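Section: Multi-chain targets

For targets with more than one molecule, the full set of components is provided together so that the structure can be written out for the assembly as a whole rather than chain by chain. Components appear in the order listed by the source. The example entry contains two components.
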Amino acid sequence: MAKTLKVAIVQMSMGADPAANTARALALSTEAVAAGAELVCLPELFRSRYFCQSEDAAHYALAEEIPGPTTAAFEKLAARSGATLVLSLFERRAPGLYHNTAVVIDGAKGMLGKYRKMHIPDDPRYYEKYYFTPGDLGFRAWDTGAGRIGVLVCWDQWYPEGARLTALKGAQILIYPTAIGWHPEEKAALGERQHAAWETIQRSHAIANGCFVVAINRTGFEPEPGGSGGIEFWGQSFVAAPDGHLLVKASSTQQSVLYAELDLGAIERQRQGWPFLRDRRIDAYQPITQRFDDE
Amino acid sequence: MAKTLKVAIVQMSMGADPAANTARALALSTEAVAAGAELVCLPELFRSRYFCQSEDAAHYALAEEIPGPTTAAFEKLAARSGATLVLSLFERRAPGLYHNTAVVIDGAKGMLGKYRKMHIPDDPRYYEKYYFTPGDLGFRAWDTGAGRIGVLVCWDQWYPEGARLTALKGAQILIYPTAIGWHPEEKAALGERQHAAWETIQRSHAIANGCFVVAINRTGFEPEPGGSGGIEFWGQSFVAAPDGHLLVKASSTQQSVLYAELDLGAIERQRQGWPFLRDRRIDAYQPITQRFDDE
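Its structure, encoded as tokens over all components, is:
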């Protein structure tokens, strides 16, 4: 019988105190590796509430260098357990230069590298262009003790190009730390379709590329600073198999550690059954690098 | 109130006689325009049974030139009704050179152009590489009386690149004539997931690109020539809105003309709500033109 890989998704809700959030993330990750997880994935920007609901220079104080105290704390857990950990952090690269950055820590090897979020959103209560310079490291994948993995972050979810490019780097698992939810005032009218679109497009990345997709969202309501609204993060973290079916899915409201067993052999079986990579028309894809093909 | 566009999907099952299939396609299309359809879409290779279940040179006799007798017959209907018609034909381009080709016929203007299927499958009972040279016209869109439309064909469905490139040409509606079904012996184990993958990835093209997707499949069982198997075409033709939700969906077994009213204004509203096109990282997409990014 082929080896399976045990993955843990830490779906969290975040309080006002970054130290407490970080301690809880570390405790839940410790619980996960104790339960045998070889790959532990945390949600986007788990150290704090989702501060991008407003544009406020005071929030830059939440950024930290990478490597820094948070990576150091998780490197200890990785070294002790041998597990691979995926973190999402607010990176202070230089004074006045910040990124939304994911970090891969691999057992005793420590930090293998980072991915800086390439696609940066900006819409009401998701004012990320104020905080984050778009990534300049491209799309990446790393060989780890938990397979070859690639990390993309939240808004990247909507771009088939990001998934494809990461899969072409050989990634077996596409990991999406995320912070997405409903505007409460829109939820009745649009909420179901918004969530369905989010799940559907990520399942499609699994299908198009014949790989696993792991989406880790936060949950809970976070009020909008100085406003009357906020975001109800929709949870529902999940793992999709290479044929797109859901292996596991978390609730919309519960903080929980979700486990899935990934049979990495399913990737090649799926790609042999439906050999999409064989037939890509790379001779015709050049206009993908254009903004719009209106010449 | 904004104008809506009435679209008809002609979900057919095909018999052994091409003349009878063509006559039925014409009759159903006539019924559709009489019911007010401004855009009528037919399934892939509707003139015949899905002959690619076997490799047999005798089937080349099914090919015809474009323009040819079938386009002429449908041009008459288009001219009479003013409707836009999308056909899928087995094109004889030259002796020994054949394509799987879609044709757009626009009211009194007649044939606007053709699209030659770019991604050609080849797997058991779908031996298309034997019959069809891969398309050499690239991805296309046309201004028609029924909006700006792009056509892709079946196996193209699995490639986000094809959908993206057609949307970047300005297409408001991506139309996928299709012939896909179950191998009966696999259906119990894999059928539901196969169908879900097919629907999911096409809905994802609507979501990623903020446009409508129209998928037209055939239905009915067609036996494998000289074999004991066959294909149970799964029908379930559908129209997806720019947020990915299904507007209409046909049954798996019934021949039927399915109608949908498309509010083309939903495209821009969706793209303003979730402005994905704004943030594409065209500076980083170049490796999409590589077979695999393993250098």
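The helical segments of chain B are 18-34, 69-81, 128-131, 160-168, 184-209, 265-273.
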